[in-house]
Amino acid sequence: MHEPVGKSPTVSESRPARLADPMAAELFPDLHAERARLAFSRSSRDRMVELLGALDPDSAADEITKEYIEVTVADALEDLRGPGAGDFFGRIDEWYIGRRHIEDEHHDPVVVDWRAPIAAPFYRATSVDPLGVDFRRRFMLDDGDLIAYLDEHLDDPDEGEVAGGIPDPVLAEIGAERSGEMREIVSTIQAEQDIVIRSSIDQVLVVQGGPGTGKTAVALHRVAYLLFEHRGRLARDGVLVVGPNEAFLDYISNVLPSLGERTVRQATADELCIPRVEVTGVDGVELARWKGHADRIGDIEAVAVAAIRAPDDDIRATTGQLFAVTAALAVATRHRRRVSAIVAPSALHAAIGRALAEHGLHTVHHVHDLDADELPVFDPERVKGLEFDGVIVVNPHEILGEGTIEAVTARGARLLYVAMTRAVQELHFVTDAEPPVVLDAPR
Prior knowledge:
The structure is a single chain. By secondary structure, the chain is of the alpha/beta class. It has helices at 24-27, 31-53, 63-80, 120-124, 169-175, 191-197, 215-229, 231-237, 246-252, 255-258, 269-272, 285-292, 295-306, 322-336, 349-357, 396-400, 410-420, and strands at residues 90-92, 95-98, 102-103, 109-113, 135-142, 145-153, 240-243, 265-268, 315-316, 340-343, 362-364, 374-378, 388-394, 423-431. The chain has a six-stranded mixed sheet with strand order 3-4-2-1-5-6, with helices on one face. A hairpin with a 5-residue loop joins β3 (102-103) and β4. It is globular, with a radius of gyration of 26 Å.
C-alpha cells in the first residue's frame, strides 16, 4: 500500500476516555496515538463544516448555479453532521477507513470513505492474498470513545498475536441487541459481502441466503456504493428499493440515510401496482407449464418442511388460557429482550391485544421508534424481512393450516418458517392444540 499524502496530527487532545483499566497501555500500546488521531479527524470534520457553512450561494453567477450550490452544500453539511462522521472504524497500513471522507486543511485525506477503491482491501485482504496490505487494525468505540483495537499482521500472520480479552468487533456486532431498526454494517462487512456490494453495475445481481445472513443489509450497502461510484448516472435514472410491506420499509428506512444517501425511493410491491404495471414479458408455453405444474408445490413443500426444526421447549395452553399465557410470556420475553414481537394469525390479534392491555402494553404493527408500552404484533404474511431479539409464535398449527404434517401446505410451511426465523436470540411457541408434528418431533 502507498502511504497517504495527508500528514498525521502533531498536536491534538483526545476526549476524556471512559476506559479506566490500568492495563490498557499494555494491551493497546498505540491507544493514546489512535485517540489523538480520532480527535484530529473530528476537528478536521468540524473545520470542513465551518468552511462549507461560510459559502455564500448568492455570489453565484446565475440562479441555476446558486441553486446547485445550495443543494450540494446542504447535502454535504447534513452528511458531516450525521452520526459517525469524523470517526473511523478501521485502518490498513496508514489509511484510516470511516463512513465519510474527511480531509485536512491541505485537502489531504484524514479518513477515507469506505466505498472508495482504496478501502476495498480492508474488507478483502487475507494472509493468503493480502492485496498489498501489511497491517490491518479494527477499532472499537463505545459511546464515541476509542476503547480497543484488534490487529492483524497480514505480511506475517504468526506475529499477529492478539492479547487475550480483546473483543472482536465482528462478534461484538453480532451479539449486540437489536434496536427496532436495521443498522448499517460498514465496519463489519465480510469479504464475500464486499464482493457483492462492489460488483459491476451493468448486470442483474441475485443474492440468495438463509435468514439472518445479511441479504438485505448487503443490498442496501450496494445501493450506497453504486450511488458513490455512479452518482451522475443514477441521479438521472433513479434508484428504487422495493419491500414486501410498509413494516419492512420502516425497519430498513434508516440504513441509507445513515450512509449519507437520502434520494432513494422506497415502495411496496402493491404501491407499484397502482396504477397496474403493464406486463411486458411472457414465459414460453413449456416454461409456463413447468412452473405451473402441481409437482412444484410438492418440491417447495418438501424443502420448506425439511427446514423446520423442533424447539427446545413448548408451551401448551387451553383455549381460555391461550391469550393470557401469550401476554405473560411476551412481558417476560420483552424484559429480557427489549426488541421482541408476537407473530400470530390475524384473527387472534384483537384478543392478544386485550390480554396485553392488562399488562399495560399496546399492540402496534411497526418496529421503528417504539414507545415503552408498545409491542409489535404481526401476522406471518407481514413479518418477512424483519428481525427481533425475541419472537413468540402463537398457534403454529393455524399458520400451517392443520395440526398434522399430512395437512401442511407449501404456503403454510413457508409462512411458519418465516415466522420462526425472525428470532435472533429467543424463540417461543404458544398453542391451544397439539403442536404440529414438525414441531413436536422426537429430539
